[in-house]
Amino acid sequence: MRMTNLLSSGTLLLLGATGASAHGPPSPGSSGLSSFGGANLLASTGTPLGQEFAHQNITFYLSTPKPGNGPLGAGPRHDTHKGDAILYLTDVFGIALPQNRLLVDSFARAGYLTLAPDLFQGEPASADINTPGGPVFDPVAFLAAHGTLQTDPVVETAINYLRNTLNVTRIGVAGYCFGGKYAFRFVAPGRGGDVAFTAHPSLVEESEILAIDKPLAIAAADHDELLNATVRVRFEELLGQTGERYQINVYGGTTHGFAVRGDQNVPSQKYGKEEAFVQAVRWFDTLL
Questions:
Q1: How far apart are CA 124 and CA 176, in angstroms?
Q2: Mean pLDDT throughout 31-58?
Q3: Is residue 7 included in any domain, yes or no?
Q4: CATH number of the domain to which 107 belongs
Q5: Which residues does the annotation mark as catalytic?
Q6: pLDDT at residue 237 is higher than 50
Q7: Which of 187, 218, 232, 278 is the most buried (most CB within 10 A)?
Q8: Could you tell me which of 63, 55, 59, 119 has the C-alpha nearest to residue 90?
């Protein structure tokens, strides 16, 4: 099945690709994060520690690695990634969602200066849309208001800020769900990204996959009615045609949004979120 535009009837389509699978929780006492600092690098709860500020009428959330073992302390990784940065592109819930801010902080603890722009100019989807009785969410209207014409300039401003104000030389793009589309778009020629990671990307077109000229990794959920094996295989076929290095992991027992909003009381989702973070950090460590 060829899919040229992976958006249907106003529904956010979740896309990934087949590859190595990570099924179930680790054995007792083990942690996929232990190889580079332990599970304390990844925070799913708590108070975000970065700073919010405005630049050229866009709100940013920035987290900077610190020496030592404090709340944003990167320990021995503090000096490992000087000149590198991660551009964090959010799901539809934007930088207001605590889990997004906590992931930005977690990348900082892994040693990366990390910047997240407000992709929605102060109008993200409400975090309560999946709650019974919560606000009504109209995905058609939302996506019409936040297409590439509106979103590309925000991402471009963020890249320019990293390179020209913070003097970053290499940028890893980390896109989640809605932001995953822009992870693809900004590792195309001349777009400013040097390597990309995306978890459960949505709205990605075939032309955007084929256009990449930098390495890209995907973390996909296995339980989602819109993330089926046929679509994942097509992603793999298209990535293979690019000639670029790619990685695709499918995490068992997870659902759409697990890498950001996975239920930490469900072992398979907790494990999936941790390992997707590990996947991202190792990918950036290797290729930035």
A1: 14
A2: 78
A3: no
A4: 3.40.50.1820
A5: 177, 224, 256
A6: yes
A7: 218
A8: 119
Other Cβ atoms less than 10 A from the Cβ of 142: the count is 18
* pLDDT score recorded for residue 151: 98
Following DSSP, what letter does each residue of 27-59 receive, concatenated?
A: PTT--TTGGGT-GGG--SSS---SEEEEETTEE
Per the CB < 8 A criterion, the answer to whether 18 and 250 are in contact is yes
- Residues 6 or more apart in contact with residue 269 via CB below 8 angstroms: 253, 254, 255, 258, 262, 263
- Residues composing the chain: 288
Q: Tell me the C-alpha distance between 2 and 263, whole Å.
A: 33
Half-sphere exposure of 53 (CA within 13 A, CB side): 9
More confident residue, 68 or 251: 251
For 188-222, letters b (16+ CB in 10 Å) and e give beebbbbbbbbbbbbbbbbebbeebebbbbbbbbb
The answer as to whether 162 is a domain residue is: yes
Q: Please state, rounded to an integer, the average pLDDT across all residues of the chain.
A: 85
Q: Is residue 5 part of a domain?
A: no
As a whole number of angstroms, the distance between CA 32 and CA 254 comes to 16
| 9 domain residue, yes or no | no
Domain of residue 212: give its range.
20-287
The structure tokens listed for 74 are 């990167």
- The beta strand positions in 10-167, using DSSP E, are 20-23, 51-55, 58-63, 84-89, 113-117
Q: The tokens of 234 are what?
A: 């097509």
Q: What is the pTM of this model?
A: 0.87
Domain count, the chain: 1
Residue 61 Cα to chain centre, angstroms: 15
